[in-house]
Amino acid sequence: MKKLIIRFIVTIVVVVILAALAAHLLLDGIIKRGIETIGPKLTKVDIKLQSVSLSFLSGSGKITGLVVGNPEGYKTPSAISVGSASLALKPGSLLSDKIVISSINVQAPEITFETDLKGNNLNKILANLDAATGGSGSQPPKAKEPAQPKAAKAGKKLQVDDFVISGGKVHVSMTTLGGKAATIPLPDIHLTDLGKGPEGITPAELTKVVLQAIEKSAVQAASGAVGDIGKGATALTKDLSKTVSGSAGSITKGIGGLFKKQ
Q1: Angstrom distance (rounded) from CA 3 to CA 197
Q2: Is the pTM of this model over 0.90?
C-alpha cells in the first residue's frame, strides 16, 4: 500500500510538471505568434521576434531578438531592434481580466530615425497604429468605446507599473543627403503607472504610449545630429560648394520646421 501511494504521488508530480511545461511552451508560442501576426496588422510594418520565455511560477520573462521593420518608402532595414528585454509580472493576474506587469526593462535598443525633413519613419508607424485602432494619441476615443463592447471584453487588459528603456542608440539617417547618417545615444526612457486604473490599458494603447515616448526621445536626440549632418554636407566637394551650401541652408530651415512639428 505504501509503495502504491508513493507511486501515485510521484505520478501526480510528474503530470503536474509536464502540464506546467506544456502550458509554458504553449503560452510562449501564443505570445510570439500574437506579436508577429497582430503587430504588423496594427503598425503596417513587419515585426519579427526570435523567442519568448515566461515562467508561470516566478512571473519572470524574457523577450529576445525583436525587430520592427520600416514603413513602405523608407530605405533603412528596420526602425527598432531590441536584443533582449526582461519583464516581471504577477502570475496570478494571468487568469484575471487584467495582467499586472511589475516591470519591463528594455536593454540597449537600436532605434533608426530616418527622415526626409518632411516626416520620419517612427511618426509614420505611430500614424499607422493610430489609424488601425481608430484612436488619437495615447488614449482611446471615448465616443467609440460603446460601439465596441465585445471587442473590449474579449481581450486582456494590461497594467505596467514600471517601463524602462536604457542604453539605447539612435541611428539618424537623412534621405535628403543620400542616406548620410550619424549615431548618437538615446536618452533613457522611464514610464510608470501605465493602465493602473480599473480599466487597464490594451496592448495597442500600451504600444502607442511606448512608441510616442521613443519617438519624442529620438527626435530630441536626433535634432543636433541632423543639424551637424546638414552642415557637414557643405564639405562634400569644392566644385559643388555653392550648390551644397544652398542645399545646406534649405536643409537647416527644413530641420527647424521638422522639429517644430514633433
Answers
A1: 53
A2: no
Cell of 208: 502607442
Q: How, if at all, do strands 80-89 and 157-166 pair?
A: unpaired
Least confident of 66-70, 91-95, 208-212, 254-258: 254-258
At 9, the pLDDT band (50, 70, 90 cuts) reads: low
Q: Write phi, then psi, for 81 (nearest 5 degrees).
A: -135, 125
Sort residue 193 into left (φ over 0), alpha (ψ -120 to 50) or beta: left
Strand ranges inside the chain, DSSP E: 47-54, 60-68, 80-89, 98-107, 110-115, 157-166, 169-174, 180-185, 189-194
Rounded distance between C-alpha atoms, residue 230 and residue 65, angstroms: 33
**Residue 226 three-state SS:** helix
Residue 65 three-state SS: strand
Q: What is the DSSP letter of 139?
A: B
- Map residue 138 onto helix, strand or coil: coil
pLDDT tens-digit readout, 86-116: 999 998 888 889 999 999 999 999 999 998 8
Cα–Cα distances in angstroms (integers) from residue 29 to residues 51, 161, 262, in the given order? 9, 25, 37
Instruction: Give the bridge partners for 105, in sequence order.
Output: 86, 164
